[in-house]
Amino acid sequence: MASVTGPLPQLLADTAGLRWTEQLHGLARTRLDELARAHGGLDDLLRAATVRPDVASQVAAAFTVGETWFQRIGAQLEALPELLAGRRHVRAWSAGCSTGEEAYALAAAFTRQTVEVLGTDLNSESVRRAREGRYGAWSFRGVPPEQVRRSFERRGDLFEVRADLRRRVRFAVHNLTTPAPLRDLDVIACRNVTIYFTPAAAGQVYTHLARALAPGGVLLLAPSDPRPPAHLGLVVERSGGTQVLRRPAFAAAPGPAVSGAPGAGMKGAGPSGVGVSGAGVSGVAPVTPGAAVPDAPRDPELPEARRAAYEAPHDPQAQLALAWALRRAGQDGRAERQARHTLTLLDAHGDSWLAARVRAGCLRLLDGAGEG
């Protein structure tokens, strides 16, 4: 694989802060091959990328993950009107919006307040599709039909964003490792994005996000995302069965980015990497060591198991560990699918002791037994 990737890992890290993995390379292969053909081959493409920022951005955009849907971590969206009840007008940013579902969902979440949403993504093709605002039924999984009818019009097999919702949302291409395009934002959603970044880049991105929040503003992350550095001063707030991060109402703007992993080497940082709140912040629960990021499952091992499985896509032990973590978190359907996926990896391990042990673990899970 090294001969195939060559300078790609460093190019991705330098251009967009992305962390190269075999799994990510597999997802990007089709788009990368198209770019390579347009430049006469992969080597010529990479040479061009070293001297042309626009080509480097195209290569990095090929490695962006476009998986998204309207009801993703829906409890956070449902909690927003209450969390921001004191604001008549809400300014929001969907950072890493892919094809736009999250940006439109943010705008639709507010029915009693006026709202304006900016959606940004590194991938210009994703931004183009977001502006079109046409989606298939799969993007609406988990969304009640009446909500779909309220914000979308049926056009054959597709659903098109209604004009009143479209007016509240705009889109732009943006690299998250650069300063935020807006300031004084009431809510920023950056979910399932920083998991793909290098530790140093994730810390830099979190600094940009925290500085873009208005005092009292809310940051939405996903369970698998790394924790923001403690020095940013964000605190965990619980609402409606979910969790978000909030910038305290009277906090000073966060300082400049600190190199290194998010939450690493920060004075006063707990294991969670999120700052510990002092007393006197109304409605905000102090962060305790090991505090979960927004919408974390009850089992604190799940985010770590997801991260380990992502970093080692061909390791059956890491994949099985994720299956059991999903089971303990009550996500039985996902756990069973993960176990079946793990079984497909065992052919490469023959009749080894490892293969036998992992196979037995998968079968126990699929049979509904305990881990043993």
What do you see in this structure?
- The protein has helices spanning about 1-5, 10-15, 20-40, 40-50, 55-60, 75-85, 100-110, 125-130, 145-150, 165, 200-210, 300-310, 315-330, 330-345, 355-365, and strands spanning about 90-95, 115-120, 135, 150-155, 160, 170-175, 185-190, 215-220, 235-240, 240-245.
- By secondary structure, the chain is an alpha/beta fold.
- It has three domains: about 1-60, no CATH class; about 75-245, Rossmann fold (3-Layer(aba) Sandwich), CATH 3.40.50.150; about 300-365, Serine Threonine Protein Phosphatase 5, Tetratricopeptide repeat (Alpha Horseshoe).
- The strands form two sheets. Strands 6-2-1-7-8-10-9 form a seven-stranded mixed β-sheet.
- The longest helix is centred in the first third of the chain and has 17 residues, at about 20-40.
- It starts with a helix and ends in a 6-residue tail after the last helix.
- GO terms for molecular function: S-adenosylmethionine-dependent methyltransferase activity.
- This is CheR-type methyltransferase domain-containing protein.
- Pfam families: CheR.
- Assign the CATH class of the largest domain: Alpha Beta
Strand order of the largest sheet: 6-2-1-7-8-10-9
Percentage of β-strand residues? 5-15%
The H-level CATH homologous superfamily of the largest domain, spelled out, is Vaccinia Virus protein VP39
Q: State the distance separating the first and last CA atoms.
A: 36 Å
The helix-strand sequence is: HHHHHHEHEHEHEEHEEHEEEHHHH
The total count of strands amounts to 10
**Helix segment tally:** 15
- How many domains is the backbone divided into? 3
